[in-house]
Amino acid sequence: MTNLTKDADKMICILYKEFLSRRKSGLSKSSACEFGSSETVHSTLFNKQSLDDIDETLRELSRADYVSCFFADNTIYNFSITSDCIIYMENRFKTGLIEVTDFIAKLIP
Known about the structure:
The chain is α+β, with helices and mostly antiparallel strands.
């Protein structure tokens, strides 16, 4: 397991929850892994954080091999969660969506 900051841990849990929700709704695995730009997730999943903080946290997750990022103009133009991330999260949250949702609820006041 890679050591992550609390912000990165929270972000990867939220991204994994979104991945599981997408899979449950019928999206293919490859489509469910894709999240678009940091601006996209800022507006849809992390609107209470600054865009700079989201970019920095995604860079941390990229260094841990939990996300794969494509950069343009020094910002994250497109990113996806990796197989390493999915494996880690499957082992961490064995019961899936319900368990990760409960964990996130405890993190977010």
